[in-house]
Write a structure and sequence with these properties.
alpha/beta; TIM Barrel; eight-stranded parallel barrel; 44% helix; 14% strand; globular; binds 1,3-dihydroxyacetonephosphate; gluconeogenesis; EC 5.3.1.1; Triosephosphate isomerase
């Protein structure tokens, strides 16, 4: 329930999921960059999370044009190197200057059987490479209907943050993404989002300390668009959004980044 502090700069991250080849990625980032102004970057951290195959192209564009756009990866291996066919290590992502790596997205948990233990190992691998993990947590519809969302999310949080010390948790981003709101057009009400995000911050204060808890950015994700972002951002413990579908439309994503101009 802590008031937003200047140390919590909002973060709007566009998770493109399995969309956009490297050429489409360049076109999309160029369109975003054309629309974004210095003041947007001053107010909000703006990140794109493309598929692995497009990260190098995004990096080249960001470097060449000195864009303020940050970028990251949708996943990261828990292993440092070796015989793990198909995996991408945190050090490889660090070499591409990724700022973020999403870990524990519900689609990874659901389709790739990722457990809290694996998610935790991935988060620690990212942190060891100086990459901020975006640790995703969120309940399914059955849990929500039974009123168990807070307990469910806090258990995922405890598991995901195991063995991560306070100095590293401050660089970690938590994304609350209720599974029933992802890609469904169904958004949690701002009050629903605040309830769980506040519980996450309270737990962070218990696991670490109030100062660390105040610094951690907590994002909401699930059918975020220009029409609902302002009300979500008006909540005390919501510090940004992890945006799926709407981040594929540069106009809509820029609108989300400029949520301050939108009516609540
Ligand atoms: O899963 C999400 C972001 O990681 C949310 O996706 P949508 O914004 O498409 O619902």
């Amino acid at each position: 329930m802590a008031p937003a502090t200047p140390s919590r700069k909002p973060l709007m991250a566009g998770n493109w999921k399995m969309n956009n080849n490297h050429l489409e990625a360049i076109a999309l980032v160029q369109k975003m960059a054309f629309a974004l102004k210095e003041a947007d970057y001053d107010a909000v951290d703006i990140a794109v999370i493309p598929p692995f195959t497009a990260i190098r192209s995004v990096q080249t564009l960001v470097d060449a044009d000195r864009l303020g756009i940050q970028y990251g990866a949708q996943d990261v291996s828990q292993h440092a190197s070796g015989a793990y066919t198909g995996e991408i290590s945190a050090s490889m992502l660090a070499k591409l200057k990724c700022s973020y790596a999403v870990v524990g997205h519900s689609e990874r948990r659901q389709y790739h059987a990722e457990t809290d233990e694996i998610v935790n190992a991935k988060a620690r691998a990212a942190l060891a490479a100086d990459i901020s993990p975006i640790l995703c947590v969120g309940e399914g519809l059955d849990v929500r209907k039974a009123g168990g969302q807070v307990a469910h999310v806090l258990a995922q949080l405890d598991g995901g943050l195991a063995k991560i010390p306070a100095d590293q948790v401050r660089r970690t981003v938590i994304a609350y993404e209720p599974v029933w709101a992802i890609g469904t057009g169904e958004t949690a009400t701002p009050k629903d989002a605040q309830e769980v995000c506040a519980a996450i911050r309270t737990r962070l204060a218990e696991l670490y300390d109030g100062g660390s808890a105040d610094e951690v950015r907590i994002l909401y994700g699930g059918s975020v668009k220009g029409g609902n972002i302002a009300a979500i951002m008006a909540q005390d413990d919501v510090d940004g959004a992890l945006v799926g579908g709407a981040s594929l439309d540069p106009g809509e994503f820029v609108k989300i980044c400029r949520y301050r101009d939108l009516p609540v």
